[in-house]
Amino acid sequence: MLKTDNTSRNLCIAFVLLLLVGLILPNWLAFLTTIALAKAMVVVGLVMLMRAGLVSFGQGLYYCLGGYTVGIAGQHLGITDAVGILFVSAFIAGCLAALLGLLLCRYREIFFAMLTLAFSMILYGVLVKTSELGSTDGFNVAKVTLLGWQPSPGQLSLVVYSLACLVAFLTAFFMHRYYQSGMGFAGEAVRENEIRVEYLGVSPQRVVFIKYVLAAMLAAVGGSITAMIAGHVDPEMAYWTTSGEFVFVALLGGTGHVVAAFIGAFLFEVIRTIAFDLAPYTWQMILGTTLLLVIFFLPKGLWSLLKAKKVGGNNV
Q: Are 43 and 267 a contacting pair, CB within 8 Å?
């Protein structure tokens, strides 16, 4: 008997529940959840690369690019429509990724990781030296509108939260379908044996190229939503520590399912918030300890716990 995949249905239920819960969430928790959803979209793209055997330490490049697109569009171009900006940021990131991907798709393992990190740090260096964009301090982002409607300051947080829920749902739904497609399985094949993939008539470089571009577009959308809810952008969005956070979340959640990235991102934000409250000067040590415990006891991430529980329930 074939196993039924209820992921699409569960994603729809989760989307509706998130929208309803957003009406009663306190502002601080709605903000935290929005940030978690935005970062999860970056991690989803990173996980897609990891399933192909690649680790990017440069997703901060596109995360920052998406954030600065929001800031520049509002402050310098007078464009504040949230939906339009998301499409523009994804398009710009896709174009840049297509250019860089021509080089990166030829490399694997540590070479791929270091090259992605290098490109991200180049953007960081450029932004730090650009006084017109606030240099190291960055600049504030203009309040966004939604299809011509200007939300009040009290409504803005809920609007961005709802938009983040919608984009996260569409991202999870699309990526779940993508993982079940031929191109999705091709990534795992590239990780296992590129030569056999070539024998099947599929170009490993083309597979990596497509995944890199998709991951970049997702990162830019995540960065845009972060800028909208935070109201500020700065070069730290492109710094290596930001890219490291995304890798941290990917390891925390695991790569076994598209939902794992969202679980990992939310728990990461909760852990960091609590750690900063308890130890504002040594909170990084708490995060590092958490990662070590996950690596030692849950090498496949938190999703392995849910998967094991589900398998155990089916065996009863």
A: no
